[in-house]
């Protein structure tokens, strides 16, 4: 390292850079709007995370696509769909669904609603910027900004869906109507998927619903601006989801990847489709029968990329019974299939998830 570089290193203060970025209340888009040609140091990721092998550009023939047409009124199709869901969750932890009941018009308007929010006048958008995560409507860049080793190239609008959604008047005007409508429809779809997952495991259709694994729902409207140096950063770091189930609406830009058989593969955008991925909690409950998928979003010069990820889980905090424990479902255990995991409370699990950092499974510490 040269003398000049050493001097630069000695003067660099990461906390000052993070705080200046956060205090702007403008997020990553604010940096792009300012015309920067190089990304700030706080966004640069370790190189070994960026140059892992990626799969073929078109993984469409591999990642399962499940047609839900007839799932409610055709017994034969219903059984076929349950079998497809089971195989997809066992072998992939992710699949795409078509004919799911939410019209393409609603999906397109939801994407445009998130775009309008992030691209509106900065002074209006700044009013929603906060790190008070108890609020029901939050605009923020990087929830873990001050904890992570490097920041991700994205901004987020977070909105609660259930059990106590915000009053519509609290929602941003530019996307208010579509947020209300999409939240209603995606919640209904979430219940359908919980029934299919229950049946795929040989349980009663309402098993997971009765366990209240769709009781707390929220969505993240993600905005990934065009990146001048995409080879140095990521849109979202390598992680698994700390919930039961995630429903993802993505635009046609692409960038979502999953880790399958130690190989990064693209999840290709399909018009009208939704991406479904299982989370750590489902893997815990099923004793490793259904897998939680590792995934990330790469940064791109093309953009912006927009997605809406809806998360379903039990309530983690401020519930009447924070001591309720979750572990492998008894009906799925036997002498040949003993429990792999210890029981945990939802609160303890989530605290561990956010303390460990990205890239490793948050279930490892629970294994016997």
UniProtKB/TrEMBL annotation:
Domain of life, source organism: Eukaryota
GO molecular function: dioxygenase activity; metal ion binding
UniProt xrefs under InterPro entries: DIOX_N, IPNS-like_FE2OG_OXY, IPNS-like_sf, Oxoglu/Fe-dep_dioxygenase_dom
Cofactor dependence: Fe cation
Keyword tags: Iron, Metal-binding, Oxidoreductase
Pfam families: 2OG-FeII_Oxy, DIOX_N
UniProt-listed Gene3D superfamilies: B-lactam Antibiotic, Isopenicillin N Synthase, Chain
Segments forming domain Fe2OG dioxygenase: 215-315
Protein family (similarity comment): Belongs to the iron/ascorbate-dependent oxidoreductase family.
Name this polypeptide is given: Fe2OG dioxygenase domain-containing protein
Phylogenetic lineage: Eukaryota, Viridiplantae, Streptophyta, Embryophyta, Tracheophyta
């Amino acid at each position: 390292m040269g003398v000049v570089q050493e001097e630069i290193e000695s003067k660099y203060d990461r906390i000052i850079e993070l705080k200046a970025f956060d205090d702007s209340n403008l997020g990553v888009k604010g940096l792009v709007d300012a015309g920067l040609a190089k990304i700030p140091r706080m966004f640069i990721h370790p190189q070994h995370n960026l140059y892992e092998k990626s799969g073929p550009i078109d993984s469409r023939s591999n990642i399962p696509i499940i047609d839900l047409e007839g799932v409610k009124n055709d017994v034969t199709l219903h059984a076929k769909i349950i079998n497809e869901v089971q195989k997809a969750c066992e072998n992939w932890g992710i699949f795409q669904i078509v004919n799911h009941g939410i019209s393409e018009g609603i999906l397109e308007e939801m994407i445009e609603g998130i775009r309008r929010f992030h691209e509106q006048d900065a002074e209006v958008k700044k009013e929603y910027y906060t790190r008070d995560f108890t609020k029901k409507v939050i605009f923020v860049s990087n929830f873990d900004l001050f904890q992570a080793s490097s920041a991700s190239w994205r901004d987020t609008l977070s909105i609660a869906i259930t059990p106590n959604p915000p009053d519509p008047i609290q929602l941003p005007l530019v996307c208010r109507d579509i947020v209300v409508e999409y939240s209603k429809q995606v919640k209904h779809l979430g219940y359908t998927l919980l029934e299919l997952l229950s049946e795929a495991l040989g349980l009663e259709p309402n098993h997971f619903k009765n366990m209240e694994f769709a009781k707390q729902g929220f969505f993240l409207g993600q905005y990934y601006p065009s990146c001048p140096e995409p080879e140095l950063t990521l849109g979202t770091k390598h992680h698994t989801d700390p919930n039961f189930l995630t429903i993802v609406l993505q635009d046609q830009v692409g960038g979502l990847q999953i880790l399958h058989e130690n190989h990064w593969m693209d999840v290709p955008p399909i018009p009208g489709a939704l991406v479904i991925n299982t989370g750590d909690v489902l893997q815990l409950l099923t004793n490793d029968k259904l897998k939680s998928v590792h995934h990330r979003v790469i940064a791109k010069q093309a953009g912006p990329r927009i997605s809406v990820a809806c998360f379903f889980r039990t309530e983690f905090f401020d519930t009447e019974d924070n001591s309720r424990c979750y572990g492998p479902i008894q009906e799925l255990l036997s002498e040949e299939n003993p429990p792999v995991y210890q029981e945990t409370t939802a609160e303890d699990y989530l605290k561990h998830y956010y303390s460990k950092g990205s890239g490793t499974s948050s279930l490892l510490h629970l294994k016997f």
